[in-house]
Design brief:
The chain is mostly beta strands. It has one helix and eleven strands. Strand 6 and strand 7 form a beta hairpin.
Length: 137
Amino acid sequence: MKLEGQCLCGNVTYAADTEPKFTAVCHCTNCQRQTGAGVSLVVGVDDADLVISGDSVKTFITVGEDHQSNTNRSFCGNCGSPIVSRIDAMPGLAFIKAGTLNDTSWLNPTLDLWHRSAQPWVPAIPGAEVFERGIPA
């Protein structure tokens, strides 16, 4: 599968020629703050398969509550679009921000993460495996 996407202004683009490992919604408070929404929809891929282009990529680091390691949140420094997150405790895995994909028609979240932090108006995803916290180690 060829995954391609870009930021809002088009300066940052990416491609990954790989099958996604999973599609998830994350309700953690850091993802809510980063997206400005109740959830972050992400697609997990092998980081080695992801190629990001553009000269405006910036990274902001947060520390995850469960894993206590850096979550490296990359975004476009021009328009602010979140692009990908990488967690030091999960080497080799990249979490593409699914709203930046050129084709989102196939998305079907199978994991519902940090549901304990979900906004009260956001129900669990039907058919998804629900975790009150993050992905178990």
